[in-house]
Request: fold
Amino acid sequence: MAHLQGPRIPFLYLCLAPPRLGRPLRLCSRRHQSTEPTPQVQPPIGTLSHASHLSPPPTDYGRTIFADKATVTLSAGSGGHGCVSFLREKYIEAGPANGGDGGSGGSIYIQAVRGETSLHKLARRSHLRAGRGKNGQGKSKGGTRGEDVLVQVPAGTVVREVSRHDPIAEEEETRRLEEGSEEIANSETRGTWRRDKWVLYPASMPSEYATAEFPPLPRPRKSNLMMAQPEPPIALDLSEPMEKPMLLAAGAMGGLGNPHFVTSANRRPKFATRGEAGMSVTVELELKLLADMGFVGMPNAGKSTLLRALSRSRARVGDWAFTTLQPNMGTLVLDNSRGRPQVQVNRASGEPRTQISIADIPGLIPDAHLDKGLGLGFLRHVERAQVLAFVIDLSAGDAVEALNTLWKELGEFETLRGMETNMQTETRVVEWKAFGNSTSSASACDGTLAKRDENIIIEPSGSKSLSALPMAPISSKPWFVVATKADVEDTQANFAKLQAYLTALTRGTVDHPSKKKNSWKGRLVAIPVSAIRGEGVERIPEWTVGLLDD
Ligand SMILES: Nc1nc2c(ncn2[C@@H]2O[C@H](COP(=O)(O)OP(=O)(O)OP(=O)(O)O)[C@@H](O)[C@H]2O)c(=O)[nH]1
Ligand SMILES: [Mg+2]
Reply:
């Protein structure tokens, strides 16, 4: 915001602007207020010192990669195998077993942090794997643990489970189903060896295993960490930054070394168990909160220029429609810890607010709710901003009409969203009737099978699409208008009309443009700015913060 500190030019519409914005918060006095009369001459746009930042050539921009949704499979690490080893020392011909246990696999943690604004880092990785535990070694050396994975997401992310594969839960379920049948249980666990469960001594001959007696296969081991896992199916709303990471999937336990199988009959067991396989869970991450403030406006209204004026964003600016094709995120720093903050406010949690995140959303055109222009995708982003700033170009025709067109689209989109949510609730479950009365032996561990012998509710886990997230209706969000391009000549009458309209709306003498009953009822203002000159924009932070903390 360096450009705001130079000699300030009194703003154009002083006669029209209300004396105070009735602001609900204290604005800190500026440190270096000059007592010198400020020069009244406005330099032409091209010669302003910050012109390069606010009026850049279309080729000068930084590309922001943005994603508000990601589906990732998170795989906890498998355990390392137990070791088959015996003590070897001088004069000890056949030493006792001393194979170490395998190390447990790495776990997957999640943490919501402030500062991240997008899920693009996760969106381009479909699979995240924690490290596998190392195998045990001789001399009773246990294997080391696998490496953990920490997934950092922006505060305001919703995590929902799509499907899961938990080998331990599946095995326990199989055992439970087979408990009644002694015969099967015996044949499974005693007298034979399951190649996938045991590690064998490399120096022994295959013929030895044909005759060897194996102990019952130990039950799958669960790590203590598993107790801290969220109950399936995972559904988390990480709306606040978290101090500590939260466990999503615990790593599996390592296998047992051969000393665990020493008995009076078999003093030198030549087998150990393999590590458990790690679980994997597929989750969908979605940003519920995109930004504190979102810019809503027609194409070419000057939204990206306004974002540049308020933050250090390098959003692309061009004199044509749809310059912006993906939301640009910017951060307006209220307190850079180098002096008095620009606006002194505390969040509801008591923590001081040091910044506001801003989303410059691509332009909306009439019938955007029917997916015209860049349509529905961007209306979705509007839903995710806490406060809406309608950016209206004063030089592009009637401002009141433009505001009404934008609100009409938002209103129609809200109606459509309501209908969509109802339809999704109806079609979420498919009923399937089992043939005859035959007892199915299929396992019920993947959550797809609800009841046996009756109507079975099937949710195909692979193709399950999650319902849309419930969002606050757009019309209930606090909003205000930023009337931009006020430097253009003969725009004062347009601004005066807009302001009169907003006053009438606040008083309730005209209908709300969204035509919704539950629309936000607060004081409506229009802030005239010239984003390209960086003038008038300093009133936006205080007003936004007032609305955010209301
Ligand atoms: N005179 C004047 N021109 C402006 C102002 N703000 C933006 N412009 C110009 O308006 C044009 C469009 O600006 P953008 O910031 O790209 O507009 P946008 O709303 O982001 O456009 P889309 O991304 O296409 O939706 C550019 O040529 C800007 O230089 C302003 O305050 N005054
Ligand atoms: Mg733009």
Summary: The pocket of magnesium ion (ligand 2) is lined by residues 303-304, 323-324, 360 (CB under 6 Å). DSSP finds ten helices and 18 strands in the chain. The longest helix spans residues 399-427.
